[in-house]
Write a structure and sequence with these properties.
This is Anti-sigma factor antagonist. This protein starts with a strand and ends with a helix. The protein is built from five helices and five strands; from the N terminus they run ββαβαβααβα. Helix 1 packs parallel to helix 2. With 109 residues, it is an alpha/beta fold.
């Protein structure tokens, strides 16, 4: 999986491209765990090119969720493919995490 990022006006956007599985989740965990990440008001996760997510990938987001909430950082997912959204929905994570259809909506939150 490839992770690219850009930041502007208090927002960090991570673009996920490929499959988020046990091996690639380590890279994502490293990105989300950087101290600078908590300096942003929002962290947007672009899932447009995310084709698959494993339990290890979900675990990375879950493990950082409380830390983000405590720091007042909004974690927002957008452009999620149906098959990836279904995994979040089946596990009830769609009620714990903010998932919106588009980047415009993610930015507006």
């Amino acid at each position: 999986m490839k992770i690219t990022q850009h930041s502007s006006a208090g927002t960090l956007t991570l673009n996920l491209d490929g499959e988020l599985d046990a091996s690639s989740s380590v890279s994502l965990d490293t990105e989300l765990g950087k101290p600078d990440t908590l300096k942003f008001q929002k962290v947007l996760i672009n899932c447009k090119q995310l084709n698959y997510i494993s339990s290890a990938g979900l675990g990375v987001f879950i493990s950082h969720l409380q830390q983000f909430q405590d720091a007042g950082v909004k974690l927002v997912f957008f452009n999620m493919q149906d098959k990836v959204y279904n995994v979040f929905e089946i596990l009830g994570l769609d009620t714990l995490m903010t998932i919106v259809p588009s980047e415009a909506e993610a930015t507006a939150i």
